[in-house]
Design a protein that fits this description.
Blueprint lengths: L25 H16 L4 E3 L9 E4 L6 E11 L3 E7 L7 E7 L1 E7 L5 E7 H14 L4 H4 L2 E2 L7
Antiparallel strand pairs: 1-2, 2-3, 3-6, 4-5, 5-8, 6-7
Length: 155
C-alpha cells in the first residue's frame, strides 16, 4: 500500500466526469487499498479516485462504521428530507461550506470483485456518498454550496 498525493481543487481533473471501471483485478485492489490508506492518513471520511489523479468511478468511505468501497456507484433514490450542514473536502484543505444534501440515499455499486450491492445510508454516510459521487461526476462541494464559511466563523 502507498499514500497517494491528493489533488487540489484547482486541478482540472476534479471537474471531469469519470469513466466506468470494467476490470476488477489486482491493480484495482491495490488502488482501493492505497485510496483507503491515503484517506485515513489525511483524516478524511471519503476519497474519490479523481482526488488521487485518476478518472475512474471509484470511491472509498468510512464515517466510523468501517470502510466501504464503491465501484461504479449510482445513487438510485434520495429522500425528500434535506439536511443543510457544514462540509469540507480533502482537495480543499481548510475550506468549509454549507451544502444541502438528502438525509437518506440508496446507492447501488460494485465491490472489488465486481459483485453488485446496494445500501441505504443516512445522515453523515449519505452526505459522504453524495459528496464522493459528485467528485465522480466532476462536481466539487464548492460548486453546489449555499455559501462558503469564513474560517473565523469556525473558531
Amino acid at each position: 500500500m502507498a499514500i497517494r498525493t491528493i489533488v487540489k481543487d484547482t486541478e482540472d481533473i476534479l471537474h471531469k466526469k469519470c469513466r466506468t471501471v470494467e476490470k476488477f483485478d489486482e491493480k484495482l485492489w491495490s488502488l482501493l487499498d492505497d485510496m483507503a490508506e491515503t484517506m485515513y492518513k489525511a483524516n478524511g471520511v471519503g476519497l474519490a479516485a479523481p482526488q488521487v489523479g485518476l478518472l475512474k468511478r471509484i470511491c472509498v468511505i468510512d464515517v466510523g462504521n468501517g470502510l466501504v468501497e464503491f465501484i461504479n456507484p449510482e445513487i438510485t433514490l434520495t429522500s425528500s428530507a434535506i439536511i443543510e450542514d457544514t462540509e469540507g473536502c480533502l482537495s480543499s484543505p481548510g475550506e468549509y461550506a454549507i451544502v444541502k444534501r438528502p438525509k437518506k440515499v440508496k446507492v447501488k455499486a460494485q465491490n472489488r470483485k465486481g459483485e453488485e450491492f446496494s445500501i441505504v445510508a443516512e445522515d453523515l454516510f449519505a452526505r459522504a456518498i453524495c459528496h464522493e459521487t459528485d467528485h465522480l461526476n466532476g462536481v466539487i462541494f464548492k460548486d453546489i454550496c449555499e455559501y462558503m464559511l469564513d474560517p473565523a466563523d469556525l473558531k
